[in-house]
Amino acid sequence: ARDSDETETATFGLGCFWGPDAQFGAIDGVVRTRVGYAGGTTRDPTYHSLGNHTEVFQVEFDPDTITYRKLLNLAFESHNPHHQTSKTQYQNVILTATAAQQSTLNEFLSAQGFTADGISTRIEQLSQFYLAEDYHQKYKLRSVSSLMATFNEAGYDDQAVRESPIAAKLNGYAAGHDVAVVRESLASG
Ligand code: MHO
């Protein structure tokens, strides 16, 4: 039996990472989120020196509560796979980390009538994920100064806020994503 504490991590690029960081953080079963840079080859990207990388977000999830396939479904509902922006920074990309994710993705694509070559969304293997700067992590939550003050008073530093499950939920809430609504749409989808 699987250790109930065991999580899995999915990595997607869906435009500016602030929005999907909040959207996916609200999902029941997503326990942590992080934003960063991936998909390119240049070393040690930063926001102002991105090289050929793309803004991406990672969701660490409990596979007993939500599946990689459902996250893929949401990722594809959140962008148009027949359109791609020319700016590498904001491109749509699915970055698989394991053979299991790769095969789930292949099944998902064929169930949708898609092929990796027939859509504009980039389909790649994740080689390296570079964490973005602290001020980009939980960006929507950071705009709610009363909540940030509460985290700070409770002793959370930037890393602790980034890794906090409750911060992921509040980040979603701050952006208008209601956990209960997300749960409902997943149940029907
Ligand atoms: N510069 C844009 C997008 C930021 S996103 C982290 C803005 O200020 O909305 O690339």
TrEMBL record:
Domain Peptide methionine sulphoxide reductase MsrA, first and last residues per copy: 9-142
Signal peptide bounds: none
Protein name, UniProt field: peptide-methionine (S)-S-oxide reductase
Gene3D superfamilies, sorted: Peptide methionine sulphoxide reductase MsrA
Keyword Oxidoreductase annotated: yes
Keywords: Oxidoreductase
Class in the EC hierarchy, top level: oxidoreductase
Pfam families: PMSR
Keyword Glycoprotein: no
Residues spanning the membrane: none
GO molecular function, one term: peptide-methionine (S)-S-oxide reductase activity
